[in-house]
């Protein structure tokens, strides 16, 4: 392992820009890849060099391993940072990088294999003594078997695609009468979305919290955790607002969950930054949900309260350095992140691509805007519609909420519709300010928040 001099960022949007910013600070040259829809994208303008990798659809550009590797070879990049999404959790891409002699900034392919499919991850976690959400550890061969299993563990149950992700391929079933139609729908949804129709069953947990632990491991056998993020503000099983510390965690529960997350990472030989996701039930028992073997969208809140640059540490770990800490730091203050989407909450959150005619980004103390857009930029309709993440820090949770609301008040975007007012309504809602909001909060308050 040697010093990295040039990094190709195999991604687009805010995360590509964010990674390149750290590269610049570390004196590392940057290479962008882009599709035909992204010729004028911010990440292309931010990079030292840029390579066109194909037409707009991701399958023909950002997901084509050979094109990305070719750009890396041509540019002389010695490492690839995958960001999140796209090829970031693709073990075959990690192997292809290795074969090409290019450092993949992320965990080894074997760790991705162990955590990739949800059923395999559950088996591995049970073996390691990590509590998992009750349910099956294998997909079902027939729908009779599946139905019998659901009856045995009791309704409601959650049907889940083994190869699922991004909040897709999940279906709650409340009654036996609904099982067959839901099962068929889940199978075909899984096949369509993930090319794999394997579906398994979990007990549906009522009113859980989604609390995840950031873990970090170096190549010398040191694994630590960097505390939690509370991600229960979700719409369609996708996160909208995240914060740390979690308002529901006691120091004891934090330490316990941290310890289990480290055990989970060690069990699969993890290296680099990863996130172990848990559901916490009403009794404050916690269960492994899945592990994301990459940098998360919501990593800035962890950076705010730890003072660390997680991307810098991903790069240093890839260079063979040891972690700067030996144990979890005590969280300093409070941080909240909101995800700004080019979407229209008034029209069922329909994506709202188009030209940004005016953009005014908030400023002031302890505020960060991780953005992939600029005034005059046209948001394409081919990709995830998230345009920016605003994150804030303050000494206390109450102050962080006020600061985030103030930031949203200052945020002006014209030409497209964004969910700015919706986010403000979430932060102002008594259930949110009260701190004990579960994953049902946004769906329950849907009307009130519009
Ligand atoms: P994905 O990989 O698609 O993100 P996850 O398994 O991480 O899917 O789950 C996403 C979200 O769906 C969770 O944060 C939670 O809100 C909900 N969820 C998943 N499994 C269950 C379950 N068994 N019971 C209740 N809610 C669940």
UniProtKB/TrEMBL annotation:
Query: Which GO molecular-function terms appear in the entry?
Result: ATP binding; ligase activity; metal ion binding
A Gene Ontology biological process noted in the UniProt record is:
malonyl-CoA biosynthetic process
Family matches, as InterPro entries: Acetyl_CoA_COase_biotin_COase (IPR004549), ATP-grasp (IPR011761), BC-like_N (IPR005481), Biotin_carboxylase_complex (IPR050856), Biotin_carboxylation_dom (IPR011764), Biotin_COase_C (IPR005482), CPAse_ATP-bd (IPR005479), PreATP-grasp_dom_sf (IPR016185)
Q: Which UniProt keywords apply?
A: ATP-binding, Biotin, Ligase, Magnesium, Metal-binding, Nucleotide-binding
| Pfam families for the chain | Biotin_carb_C, Biotin_carb_N, CPSase_L_D2
Limits of the Biotin carboxylation domain: 3-447
Domain annotation ATP-grasp: ranges: 122-319
Mind telling me which NCBIfam families this protein's record contains?
accC, PRK08591.1
What is this protein's name?
Acetyl-CoA carboxylase biotin carboxylase subunit
